[in-house]
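Recall that a protein's primary structure is simply its ordered list of amino acids. Everything else, from secondary elements to tertiary packing, is in principle encoded there. The following example makes that idea concrete.
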Amino acid sequence: MKDLKNSVGIVETKYFDITEKIHLESGVEFGPIRVAYETYGKLNDKKDNAILLLHALTGDAHAAGYNTPEDKKPGWWDDMVGPNKAFDTNKYFVISSNMLGGCSGTTGPCSINPETGKPYGLSFPVITIEDAVKVQKKLVDFLGVKKLIVAGGSMGGMQALEWAIAHPDIVVGTIIIASTSRLTAQGIAFNAVGRNAILSDPDFNNGDYYDKEKQPERGLAIARMVGHITYLCEESMHNKFGRRFQDKDSPNFDFNIDFQVESYLEHQGQVFVDRFDANSYLYITKAVDYFDLAKKHGSLKNAFEKTNSRFLVMSFTSDWLFPTFQSKEIVQALIKAGRDVSFCEIESPCGHDAFLLEFETQTEIVKSFLSKTNGGSDD
């Protein structure tokens, strides 16, 4: 029996349908769109106590609690969302939705194209972070929210930045964790390797594999293995695995798995294949690559000129995927734009994954920020 005392409990994933077409950044008019989402807590009478959680690359709408009593694991940010937690559901109306292009209930390449009756596959339009926020805004309006705090880690932080810039009339607080205003060339390179692993899989079939006996599982698993390396760091990998052999004290002298770290990455790849779609991985990593606020607005300072939000920016010492200097670039631009911003670099050996793991330290910082953000709670 699960202990649900400090949990949001059993939650239902709901669906919101956007019937009109959305104008995408590429110029394509796209629709209809279904959005998978979950909510925790209650919207107050003023409709100003809402927090929108924005997931990372392979996340989904299920941020907290359990969908069924049989679930072995709770939502991806359960340590941060619930009664008396960082995002306190006794005070706030917390929303989490699956991103456009995803594969967990929101319209994406694996969804059925109503014009053909078949999955979109690679006929799905290329999307951007801006497009994802446009879709999320439709959901927030549907839920009746008047004022909003946005929060996200990694790709979720990119979405939160876009929210603050695109909707200054509604966003009063923005929490950016382990994120960036644009990916480095190194980050783009890792995404490119992952995409090429998928595209080179003999079972990819130009994205049309949904009704086939074989799926591009190996390519997707390798993409995940490459990505997962960037989420860790040398210290965390050394502490977890070192150079230890797998279940023995000597090498195999062949090309099968020798080291524990190899076994770990293989496991991560196989587990990922069971829950994610290869085409979605292509589209979402491309959206991350395209995100560049300075290029879009002329400079980062210009990007933040019209925002009306307070900002909290957090980074982690061992995160080499989105290192602290990228968070500081955001902070410096916000200061130049005259915005209210707080910054904290958290000591952690967990690499980029720290935003999912270092919940105790984050909780203290987030609670302090929220307590001073107008429109965030009933208090």
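The first strand starts at residue 14 and ends at 18. The chain has twelve helices and 14 strands.
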